[in-house]
Amino acid sequence: MTIKQQLQAFFSLILVTFSANSLAVEEGDSVPDFDLPSIHQDHPAIAMAALEGKTVLVDFWASWCAPCLSSLPLYNDLYHKYKDQGLEIVAINVDNPIEDGLDFLLDTPLDFLIPADPDGDAAELFEVYGMPTSYLIDPNGTVKLVHMGFRNGDIEIIEEAIVSTLAGN
Amino acid sequence: MQTVRIFGLLVTILSLLSSCTEVRAWERGYLAKDEMAWESDSLESALNDHIFFSKEASSGGNSAAGGGCGCN
């Protein structure tokens, strides 16, 4: 092997090492399975497998992420609007310590499922690239929408996707 | 001899890379903590800004926008 080939192999190895984001969950993929404790000690654990057959919005959030905090009350409204049609919302909190997330929930009570993922195990499974990121999962467990960030007008995009998925499209 | 040099270069680069780590999206809360700021004392920071403004007739540009969550 020539020196040029050795160098090419070395830099190819570095490129492969730093291209881990290609493993991120994308639209059309199957949702990774996770099983996390609830952020509330007296609530049962939350597993993705137990939500099979439902339309699920999985959202990753943290108390230090301002757009996350503006999105959650709007998700609560969506949950009440569509829960009778089969919508479930799972807002995974990645605060470490989880008390930071609980402090936010004291002021802003939310009615959907909130698992705690302080070590980022589920976030690692999804290869979350930015906060917040939400994933809309259809009843078959297929990712229909991946949405990163939260700006004005984004809630309409997410609601439209929810309505479409609930309708079976 | 040249192979030894190349090998030495690769070992040096690899040893330098071993100190690199990526702060993942869900770990950026650590960067938002007060102790991670360039100047953890806000009073001292404001004083330094004032001195800089008085001397240079300009201000700003000493911090980044956003909360570090990689979302905006």
UniProtKB/TrEMBL annotation, chain A:
Gene3D superfamilies in alphabetical order: Glutaredoxin (3.40.30.10)
InterPro entries: AhpC/TSA (IPR000866), Thioredoxin-like_sf (IPR036249), Thioredoxin_CS (IPR017937), Thioredoxin_domain (IPR013766), Thioredoxin_ResA/DsbE_sf (IPR050553)
Thioredoxin domain: residues covered: 25-167
Entry keywords, A to Z: Redox-active center, Signal
Signal peptide feature range: 1-24
Transferase is among the record's keywords: no
PROSITE patterns, alphabetized: THIOREDOXIN_1, THIOREDOXIN_2
UniProt keyword Signal, yes or no: yes
Domain of life: Bacteria
Molecular function via GO: antioxidant activity; disulfide oxidoreductase activity
CDD domains on file: TlpA_like_family (cd02966)
Identification of the protein by name: Thioredoxin domain-containing protein
From TrEMBL, chain B:
InterPro entries: DUF4266
Highest taxon of source: Bacteria
Listed PROSITE patterns: PROKAR_LIPOPROTEIN
Pfam family name, one: DUF4266
Domain DUF4266: 23-72
Name the UniProt record assigns to this protein: DUF4266 domain-containing protein
Organism of provenance: SAR86 cluster bacterium
Source lineage: Bacteria, Pseudomonadati, Pseudomonadota, Gammaproteobacteria, SAR86 cluster
